[in-house]
Write a structure and sequence with these properties.
cell membrane, about 350 residues, about 70% helix, two-stranded antiparallel ribbon, globular, 2 domains, mainly alpha, MetI-like fold, transport
Length: about 350
């Protein structure tokens, strides 16, 4: 197993490099870079994208570069901007410099905020930890037992009614469910049971330890429910179908014929085989919920997390934030994939990745 893990760790390097190369190459063709953003603000246009939409600005040559909306700005000023942002160097040199810094986990500073990328991500991380951790935990704790129960009672009224509820939950987008929760329970039109802003109250520091915990759970209830709904539905049906496939196999019939209790058959024999497909989806679920965040849900509940950070960085062309977070989250996703393989072995020791290699 050690050799397999070593091979997977070595594959992380070319995979991560490929992700960064593709995204860096694509970003070279995207209009409205950080210098154009600054020029648009200095010229009073507000947003550089207004120029692309036909705002009337012309392409003015400054030095060796063309910028939209650069009318009236001296060429040496724009050249200074290029040097400050590093755009006076060829793309290949910029990419190699960036990757060398990233290998030392030096992600630089945000172009438009006087703060390092690491500090900025750490500042937004509590929101993503809250949504990702609790959403994933609730989804697995509820969906797996429910899916097993539905598989055992397949075709029963319980299975029919719960399937209907799950399909409805899956069909409702997370942001629409969030609006429904706000209208019903956050003072929208009916009851004002839960708060609508932030992770904690203003007087959180003055509360006792128990009071802080209760206040925290009071604030996160609605956003966590809104971000869990789709993962809950998918995971429940996946668990049910996986267990149904295993229950119909010969080894289960043999175990039942030997007189083994149903619980022992399910959790002693079927569980470790059926859960493999469920665990295989964990990296995508973990990365998607934990790090991807939800821009709309964060906006609806006034949460400043990684979802909003990523959106704002992409719109402002804040490349250090965009590439720094891309590098970090891709690396974590690849490592989580390796941990998933280790979980396979933990659940079913018969799996031998090293032997397959």
């Amino acid at each position: 197993m050690g050799a397999y893990i070593l091979r997977r760790l070595l594959l992380v390097i070319p995979t991560l490099l490929g992700i960064m190369i593709i995204n860096f190459a694509l970003i070279q063709f995207v209009p409205g870079g950080p210098i154009e953003q600054i020029i648009a603000r200095l010229e009073g246009n507000g947003d550089v994208f207004e120029s692309f939409a036909g705002g009337g600005s012309e392409v003015i040559e400054s030095g060796d570069s063309d910028y939209i909306g650069a009318r009236g700005l001296p060429a040496n000023f724009i050249e200074e901007l290029e040097r400050e942002f590093g755009f006076d160097k060829p793309p290949l040199e910029r990419f190699l410099t960036m990757m060398w810094d990233y290998m030392r986990f030096d992600f630089g500073e945000s172009y438009f905020r006087n703060i390092s990328v690491v500090d900025l991500v750490l500042e937004k991380m509590p929101v993503s930890i809250t949504l990702g951790l609790w959403s994933t935990l609730i989804a697995y704790l509820v969906s797996i037992p429910l899916g097993i129960r539905k598989a055992v009672r397949d075709g029963s009224p319980f299975d029919t009614w719960t399937s209907g509820a799950i399909i409805v939950g899956y069909a409702i987008p997370g942001f629409l469910f969030a609006i429904l929760l706000i209208v019903l329970f956050a003072g929208g039109s009916y009851w004002r049971i839960f708060p609508l802003r932030g992770l904690t109250s203003d007087n959180w520091e003055d509360l006792s330890l128990i009071g802080k915990a209760l206040d925290y759970f009071w604030h996160i209830t609605l956003p966590v429910l809104a971000s869990t709904i789709s993962a809950f539905a998918t995971l429940t049906l996946l668990t049910k179908n996986s267990f149904l496939d295993e229950i119909k196999k010969q080894y289960v019939m043999t175990a039942k014929a030997k007189g083994l209790p149903e619980r022992k058959v399910l959790y002693g024999h079927v569980f470790r085989n059926a859960m493999l497909i469920v665990i295989s989806g964990f990296p995508a679920l973990f990365i998607g919920v934990f790090f991807g965040g939800s821009l709309i849900i964060e906006t609806l509940f006034s949460l400043d997390g990684l979802g909003r950070l990523g959106y704002e960085a992409a719109v402002a062309r804040d490349y250090p934030v965009v590439f720094g977070t891309l590098f970090t989250f891709s690396l974590i996703g690849l490592v989580v994939g390796i941990l998933t393989d280790l979980t396979y072995v933990l659940i079913d020791p018969r799996i031998d990745f090293e032997g397959r290699g």
